[in-house]
Design a protein that fits this description.
- The complex is a heterodimer.
- Chain A is mostly helical.
- Chain A has a single domain, classed as RNA polymerase sigma factor, region 2, helix turn helix motif (Rna Polymerase Sigma Factor, Chain: A).
- In chain A, α3 crosses α4 and α5 runs antiparallel to α6.
- Chain B has a domain of about 230 residues.
- Helices cover about 60% and strands about 15% of the residues of chain B.
- In chain B, a hairpin with a 5-residue loop joins β4 and β5.
- The longest helix of chain B has about 50 residues.
- Chain B is rod-shaped.
- Classes of the chains: A mainly alpha, B alpha+beta.
- At the A-B interface, α1, α2, α3, α4 and α5 of A face α1, α2, α3 and α10 of B.
């Protein structure tokens, strides 16, 4: 019975949006997690935010309007709100005191394989302000286009491109300083 | 270390991309496949029920809204005053016409006439066993008749109805004493008519065909006694005049002649007055006075008082119910509007605060 109802619900939303939620999930799961982890710098929090975002999206799937943007941008908008709520709830600003080494550990492991430059970039990324780091996460971790970033952040596409360019300059300078 | 190019920087950043743990990924896959139903069984069932009801609910809402709009539209067109729907379509009007035009004479008012004669119902004006001082003249009784009729029509149809009234009066050789017609919302017409008594029935039947008959009353006054009395008094006065003329012819002195002439002038004035009264009485019996009013639905027309309840009355009742319901809804909206506005403002303020606090969370 429940499977039938879920199937009916999925079929209804898919027919309305012309997109299948399962497909959106498969295409976006890792990207969404990467964005959340890049912003929050906390694996547990990133997993929590990722699951919450997909659940909210699933509940709101019938309200998704393809004319207002891509499903991917819509999903990342939900995830962004969830991530910012998580930051707000914990009273911190993307700076984690409990598990700061998670990403760095992974990065260190990779650097140990021969990439000192990557370690430098990771350090520069960690030094960025959360607002800047979010842009990097959306662009290079989640793989969103400038138009999708603009839709997620509710800014213009040109503004998104400009801000991204400035963030890369900052990151480049931070890497140079770190080196 | 040389500054990184854009390409190198992008490559390094992509290489730093975090990946989910396999356990988390498989767990999330399972939750999505189950439609997040296992997280909260109660909420999941509710959501599934909502999802299942969604298409049905939409259809129901659409059908309900369409039905409500249609009902309001029909009620507005059919019942609302000033509508273009012809009143002939109202069955009550034609039924009322048939009842009034073809049935036995309607009830008449019982009261005192202007001349002091007793007004009696028509059924009593032709008694089967007449009594009284003039019972032998029952076949030539003098009866004064009058009628009042209210016609109900649409505001836009007053001109046509008024023209039909003039035509109907002309057809029975009647006379329009006065008329006033006002078109538009709240308009109507007033007509004071004289109709030959013998054609009063035909005239009323014609009037009833013009529009819906809202009400109709007829009254009769038997003025036979007054007519006979006037005739007798005139005969007496004439005899007196003849006698005075004889006295005048045989008068021996100037005093006698002057006295006879003065008495003769007074008696002749009396005869003239009596003849005028008789002439007025005959005119009133020869012509029935008809007061006709054309009323529109919103001009305070009297309701039909035949006691019947048909489709027309049902539509009227339905219109009143809809009107009342709309009034109640309006009052409810007026009461709820301030609270709704406050709730809207609170929602907007919370949303703005939430957006600002999220931005602050980014630093």
């Amino acid at each position: 019975m429940s499977e039938t109802l879920v199937a009916i619900a999925n079929h209804e939303t898919a027919s309305e949006a012309g997109i299948d939620f399962d497909r959106l999930y498969r295409d976006s799961r890792d990207d969404l997690y990467a964005y959340a982890a890049g912003l929050l710098r906390d694996r547990a929090a990133a997993e929590e935010v990722t699951a919450a975002a997909f659940e909210r999206a699933y509940r709101k799937w019938s309200r998704f309007d393809p004319r207002r943007g891509s499903a991917r941008a819509w999903l990342f908008g939900i995830a962004r709100n969830a991530a910012l709520d998580e930051l707000r709830r914990r009273g911190r600003q993307a700076e984690l005191a409990a598990e700061p080494a998670d990403l760095e550990t992974a990065t260190a492991a990779e650097s140990a394989e021969g990439s000192a430059r990557r370690l430098t970039v990771a350090a520069g990324l960690a030094a960025l302000a959360p607002r800047d780091r979010e842009l990097v996460a959306l662009k290079f971790f989640a793989g969103l286009s400038n138009a999708e970033i603009a839709a997620v952040m509710k800014i213009s596409e040109s503004n998104a491109g400009t801000r991204l360019h400035r963030v890369l300059d900052k990151l480049r300078e931070a890497c140079h300083a770190a080196a | 270390m040389q500054p990184l190019s854009d390409h190198e920087l992008a490559t390094e950043l992509r290489a730093l991309r975090p990946t989910p743990e396999p356990e988390f990924a498989s767990e999330l896959d399972a939750r999505v496949a189950a439609g997040f139903a296992d997280d909260d069984g109660r909420a999941g069932a509710f959501e599934r029920l909502l999802a299942w009801l969604r298409p049905t609910r939409r259809r129901l809402l659409t059908a309900s809204a369409a039905g409500a709009v249609a009902a309001v539209a029909i009620a507005t067109v059919v019942i609302a005053p000033g509508g273009d729907e012809p009143t002939e379509s109202n069955p009550s009007s034609s039924l009322g016409f048939l009842n009034l035009a073809e049935d036995a004479p309607p009830e008449a008012e019982i009261g005192a006439g202007a001349t002091g004669e007793a007004l009696v119902p028509r059924a009593q004006s032709a008694p089967s066993s007449p009594t009284g001082p003039y019972a032998s003249q029952t076949r030539d009784r003098e009866v004064e008749r009058s009628a009042t009729i209210f016609l109900r029509t649409d505001a836009g149809d007053v001109r046509r109805a008024s023209a039909d009234v003039f035509s109907a009066v002309s057809a029975v050789d009647g006379i329009v004493l006065s008329s006033s017609v006002e078109e538009g919302e709240g308009g109507g017409g007033n007509f004071e008519l004289l109709v030959p008594s013998g054609k009063l029935g035909d005239a009323l039947a014609s009037f009833s065909e013009i529009a819906e008959v809202a009400s109709r009353e007829e009254s009769t006054a038997d003025v036979t006694a007054r007519t006979v009395g006037l005739n007798e008094r005139i005969e007496d006065a004439r005899a007196t005049v003849d006698s005075l003329l004889a006295q005048l012819a045989t008068a021996d002195s100037e005093d006698e002649r002057a006295a006879a002439e003065a008495e003769l002038r007074a008696e002749r004035r009396r005869v003239a007055a009596l003849r005028a009264q008789l002439s007025d009485l005959q005119r009133r019996t020869n012509f029935a006075r008809v007061s006709l009013q054309i009323v529109t639905d919103d001009s305070g027309a009297p309701a039909g008082d035949d006691g019947s309840w048909g489709i027309g009355a049902a539509l009227d009742d339905a219109g009143r119910i809809l009107e009342t319901a709309a009034a109640v809804a309006l009052v409810g909206l007026a009461v709820l509007a301030p609270f709704a506005l406050l709730a809207l403002l609170a929602w907007l303020a919370r949303r703005r605060w939430l957006t600002a606090s999220r931005q602050r969370a980014l630093g």
